[in-house]
């Protein structure tokens, strides 16, 4: 596929070096992208109207005013902010908005938003789990507004995307498919929460390549085919990797390659564009390898 990466150094300014979700993650993730000389596009800030479709006005105002403080502080026990967090978060959401516009234009048929902070835990009125604004939800709402009639979100981050699920729980035009360690943080994502357009596939601790290959070659491919989306969005969290320090899944490099390949094959089979946005992944070396693997699969 013809791939563009959306990235800006502003994503490195939201930082707390002692925290697992720190700026070094994105530096490592970008190495293979710079090496391969992939086209890099600068993001813009998300439009306020679009952000307001996903987050409450009070919460958006709270983020903007909080980030005036200089020393790192916390929205919740996991989620820090500093004086650059607001800029980074508005641009991370804006990268997803721009990414969908680029796909609609047809100039590229694949976009990777290499952004921080991540987004899939962010709820309508609160930050959570290292996430400030829900980036993939921004992409989905933007896609619907540009007449992509059915949007398929696949989330392979090791954690369940509670914020994404709750955003689209009552919207049958958006399918949310998630594999994640369960039971695990954030506690949601059981099969009991499934409906006709929400499909959680909980993975037990220690699940590895065999289990992931079965899910992604089987139920995942079948579900995408049946939903017939006009665009595919991917919450690409690489903390499913066996080297990740925060999680207990055992997916190897080749398992990650298999998962990404199945997603890209689905897009090719349906002739639809695809947008990836970076979520988790906390082992720097594994993150760099997963970036190289993903970019190779997408551009092949
Ligand atoms: Zn995660």
TrEMBL record:
Cross-referenced CDD domains, in alphabetical order?
A: HDAC_classII (cd09992)
GO molecular function annotation:
histone deacetylase activity
Identify the species of origin. Balnearium lithotrophicum
Q: Which residues form the Histone deacetylase domain?
A: 19-296
- A Pfam family that this protein carries is Hist_deacetyl
InterPro entries documented for this protein: HDACs (IPR000286), His_deacetylse_dom (IPR023801), His_deacetylse_dom_sf (IPR037138), Ureohydrolase_dom_sf (IPR023696)
Q: What is this protein called?
A: Acetoin utilization deacetylase AcuC
- Which family does the entry's similarity section mention? Belongs to the histone deacetylase family.
One of its GO biological process terms is: epigenetic regulation of gene expression
Q: Which PANTHER family match?
A: HISTONE DEACETYLASE HDAC1 (PTHR10625:SF10), HISTONE DEACETYLASE HDAC1-RELATED (PTHR10625)
Highest taxon above the source species? Bacteria
């Amino acid at each position: 596929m013809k791939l563009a990466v959306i990235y800006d150094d502003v994503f490195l300014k939201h930082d707390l070096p002692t925290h697992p979700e720190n700026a070094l993650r994105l530096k490592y993730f970008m190495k293979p992208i710079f090496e391969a000389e992939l086209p890099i596009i600068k993001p813009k800030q998300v439009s306020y109207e679009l952000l307001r479709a996903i987050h409450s006005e009070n919460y958006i105002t709270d983020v903007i005013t909080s980030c005036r403080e200089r020393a790192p502080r916390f929205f919740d026990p996991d989620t820090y902010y500093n004086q650059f967090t607001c800029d980074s978060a508005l641009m991370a959401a804006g990268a997803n908005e721009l990414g969908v516009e680029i796909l609609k234009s047809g100039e590229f048929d694949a976009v990777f938003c290499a952004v921080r902070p991540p987004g899939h835990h962010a709820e309508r009125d609160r930050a959570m789990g290292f996430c400030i604004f829900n980036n993939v939800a921004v992409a989905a709402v933007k896609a619907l507004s540009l007449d992509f009639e059915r949007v398929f979100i696949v989330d392979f981050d090791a954690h369940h995307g509670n914020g994404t699920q709750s955003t689209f729980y009552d919207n049958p035009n958006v399918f949310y498919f998630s594999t994640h360690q369960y039971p695990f943080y954030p506690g949601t994502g059981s099969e009991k929460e499934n409906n006709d357009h929400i499909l959680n596939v909980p993975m037990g601790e220690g699940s590895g390549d065999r289990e992931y290959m079965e899910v992604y070659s089987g139920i995942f491919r079948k579900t995408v085919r049946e939903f017939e989306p006009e665009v595919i969005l991917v919450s690409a969290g690489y903390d499913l990797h066996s080297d990740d320090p925060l999680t207990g899944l055992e997916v190897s490099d080749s398992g990650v390659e298999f998962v990404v390949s199945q997603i890209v094959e689905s897009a090719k089979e349906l002739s639809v564009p695809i947008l990836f946005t970076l979520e988790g992944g906390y082992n720097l070396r594994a993150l760099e390898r997963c970036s190289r693997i993903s970019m190779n699969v997408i551009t092949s």
